[in-house]
Amino acid sequence: MPAAQPEAILASRRALPRPPVAASRAVEAEGGCGVIGIASSEPVAGRHLLQALRQMRNRGNGKGGGIAAVGLDPAFFGVPARVLAEDYLLAIATLDRSVRSHVERNFVEPVFVVDHTAEIPLLAGAQASLGLDVPPPEVTCYFVRVREEARAAFGRAHGIADPAAADDEIVYQNTYRLNRELYASTGEKRAFVLSHGKDMLVLKMVGYGEDVIRAYGLEDFRASIWIGHHRYPTKGKVWHPGGAHPFIGMHEALVHNGDFANYASISSYLAQRQIFPLYLTDTEVAVLAFDLLNRVYGYPLECVIEAMAPTTERDFSLLPEDRRDLYRKLSAVHIHGSPDGPWFFLIAQSDPGSRSKRLIGITDTSMLRPQVFAMQRGSTSIGFAASEKQAIDAALESLAAEDPRYWSRADLFWNARGGSHTDGGAFTFTVEGRAGNGGTAGPGNGGTLLYCEDKFGKRIEPDATKRAPTGVVKPTGGRGPNPADIVEEIQDPVASFETIRARIPGWDYVEVANLLEELEQAARGGGDRLEVAALLTLLMDRRYSMGAMKRSCVLSMVDRAMLRVLEGARGARTGRCVWFESGAPAKDAKGLDSVAIVDGRGYPAEGPRSLARAIVELHGRGFRRILVFGVRGQRFIGCGLGPEVDGLAIDVYGSSGDYLASGMDGPAIHVHGSAQDQLAQIMKDGTLVVHGDVGQTFMYAAKGGSVFILGNAAGRPMINAVGRPRVVINGTCLDYLAESFMAGDPLSGGGFVILNGITFDEDGTMRDLESPYPGGNLFSLASGGAIYVRDPERKLTDDQLNGGEFAEMAAGDWEVARPFLEENERLFGIPLRALLTVGGRERGPSEVYRKIRPSRHKALLPEEGWVRPEG
C-alpha cells in the first residue's frame, strides 16, 4: 500500500507510555521451533493443520504454541461476510474475567462502534484434558469500526488525512495501550490483544500448536491462510500466553524459527521511530519492523524483504545495477533493523485494500534454519511453507483422505536460498477473491486464485500441460490396458517396469488404477508380495514420462497401492515376510531370507518406543532386511545399530524425519522419496541411497561411506567431513558445499563429491540446471578431498570458491569417479553416457567435468581481509 504520512504516524506515538525498564532480559536456550504455513484457493479446515503440528510436536516444548488464520469463515462468528471483510476483528484474551468490563469501558467503547461480539468457546476442562500447565485464555472477538469522532480528533491532532491510515494507527495504538496497561511483560497479566487486523484471527497459549486447535474447537474452522507454531520465542520472558507465537503487526501475524543476535540493536532502531516492544521477544520486534516498513513507510514487499534480509556478497554483485542502487539505499537506512542470526519467518497477511490474503516465507541470508516450500495445483490449489517436509506431507495426506480434489504429493518442492540474486530466498502465496494478474480461476474453487511469486515477482508454477483427475479414480476392470502380461512377468520387476514405462504415456488415470488393482490382486492371490513391492518401488523412484497425467497424482496412486500390498503382510501366514507394528510382540527372524515388514504409522517420532529403536531390536533378532512403510516424520531411522553392521538392508517408504542414517556403520539404507535435515551425520560406513532431495547439513562430520542423492541437497552439506566419504549429488546444493572438507587425496583412497547439476522435468527428461551450483563458499577452507562438478559450459567462477581452486580433470580422477557414476546409473537410471553428452555429442570426461581441489595458498575468511593479488 502507498505510504500515508509515515512521519506523522510515527510522531503520533510520542504520547504513548513507555514500557518499564526490565532489570535484565533473560536469554532462553536456542530452539528448533516447528512452523508451518498453508495457503489455499479453497479454505481448508483447521484439522489439516492439526495433523502437521502433531507430527512436529517434538519441535515444541509445551511452553508456547499458536495459530493465525486469514480469510476466515464468517459463519464461525455468526456475522455477514461484509462485516468480516470491512470491520476490524479485535480478538482480546482475558486471564481474569473481572477485567472484561474494564476493557470494554476503556478500550472498546470509546474508540469503536461494535457491530458484533462473539466469544470463542473453550473446550470443557481444556487444561486437564490437554495436560496444560497454564489455563488457556478466554477469547472475545469484537467486530468494530473506528468512531468517526475518534478518527476526526486523531486526524486533527496528528495531521493524518487518509481515513484508512488513521483508522489503522488508531487500532494499533489502542492495542498498545491495552497491552501496556494489562499485560506488559514485566507487569500484571490480566488481558491482552491477540489480533486486531481485518479478516485475521490469532489464538495462542502456553502449550503446543495443536493444543490451540483442540482447545478452541478449530478442527472444522475454515480459512484461506493458516500458520502454526510450536515452542516459544528464543529470547525474552516468554512462558506466558502472550509470549507465544504468532506476534502481530497490523494486518499480519508472524511466526519464526530461529534466534536473533541483535535484539537490542533492532529495539533501538524501533525506539527511534516511537515503537516500543512490550513482550521482550525477538519475534515481536521482527513483526514490528515488518509493519513499520510495509504499512507505515509503504514499501513494496520486495523492499520490505530486502530491508529485513539484505542481499550480500556475490549475489549482490550479480543483481542489475538499478536494484543494487536501490538496495544500497535501503541498507544505509535500515541495516540496524535487519535481524542478524539464523531465522525463517512465516507471515500470514490480510490486505484490506485488495482483499488479498498472503502467506509469506522469508529466509535469512545465512540459511541456518531449515525450510521447505511446496505447491499443488488442480481444480483447487494449495501452497505450503514449513520447517519440515514431513509436516507438509502430513497436511496433504489429511486433505487427500477426505477430499478428492487433493492428493498426497505436492507437484513441486523447493528450498529457498536466502538473499539469492535469482529468487531472493523469499516466496509469497497470494489468494485473490477473483482471478487476476493474468491468472485464471480454477473450476470448483469458488472463483478464487492462488499463485506463488518469488521476491522479484516471478511466478512459480507446476507444468501447466499436465492435468489432475477431476474426481475419484476407480479401477473399471473393463477397459484400459490388459495388465496380464505385466503381472505374468512380475518375477522380473525391472522388465515389468520397462513394459509399463513404454505404455504409460498413452494411459489415463483409470488405466493406471486398473494396473495397480491387478498388482494388488497378484499380491493377495499368492504372488510374491516382495516382487510386487519391487515393481511399485520402481514406479515410485524412477523418472519417466506419464503423458498428460501429473507425476504427483500418479505417484499418490502408487503410494496407496504400495500401502495396501504391504498391509497385506499382516495376515500372511506363509512366505518370507514377518509383520511388525507398534505395540505388537517381538518375533525372531525365521531364517536368513526373512524380511521384516514394519508399519511405521503407530511409532512415536523418537524415544524408547520409537521406530528407530524398533529397527535396532529387529536387527538384534536376526533380520537382515527390514522394509519400513507408512513413515510419518520419525527421526533417527538407521541410528544406534552399532559398529560394523554389514549385510543389513533397510528400505524406507513414506515421509522420514531428521537424522536418518546418522552415525551408521555398514548398512545399506534406501529412502524411497526425499529425506530431511541432518541426514547421515558422522556416518562411518555403508551405503545410503535417496530417491529424492535431502535437507540441511547433510553428512556433517561424516567419516566414510557411499551416498547417492537423486535430487538436490539444501544448505551446508558435507561440512567438516573427513576420511573417505564418497558422494554423488545429481542435482545441486544451495551453499557451503564441503566446507572444511578434510578427506585426503581422492587418488589415494580419500573422499570426494560428484555434483552433476541436473534435474528432470515432468516427462522424466534430464535437463541441466541453470547453474550446477548457485551459491558461494564452494569447498570453502577445504584441506583435502575433491569435488568433481559437471560444468561443461564452465559456468562456475573463482569467486564462488574460498580456499579451493579449479584443476584439470585428469585420467586418474576419472578412474576414481567413473565407478560411482556407473553405480548412479544402476540406482537411478541416469545413463553415464547421457551425463557426458553435451549439445547432442558425447564428450570426453575432462570436457564435461571440472575438478575442484584445495588451493595451495591459505584460505582466509572475508573478515581477515584477504585480497586477490593482481595478475
Radius of gyration: 28 Å
**Number of DSSP strand runs:** 34
Binned strand content = 15-25%
* Low-pLDDT regions: 23-31, 434-446, 857-871
Q: How do the strands of the widest beta sheet line up side by side?
A: 19-20-21-22-23-24-25-26-27-30-34-31
Share of helix among residues? 25-40%
Number of helices: 24
Q: The biggest beta sheet, please?
A: 12 strands, mixed
**Structural class by sheet pairing and helices:** alpha+beta
Q: Average the pLDDT over all residues and give the rounded result.
A: 90
Q: Compute the separation of the termini in Å.
A: 50 Å
Overall form = globular
Characterise the protein shown here.
The strands form 6 sheets. A 12-stranded mixed sheet has the order 19-20-21-22-23-24-25-26-27-30-34-31, with helices on both faces. Strands 7-2-8-1-14-13-15 form a 7-stranded antiparallel sheet. It has a 7-stranded antiparallel sheet with strand order 9-10-11-12-16-17-18, with helices on one face. The longest helix has 20 residues, at 163-182. It has 871 residues and is of the alpha+beta class. The two termini are 50 Å apart. Helices cover 27% and strands 22% of the residues. Residues 23-31, 434-446 and 857-871 have low confidence and may be disordered.
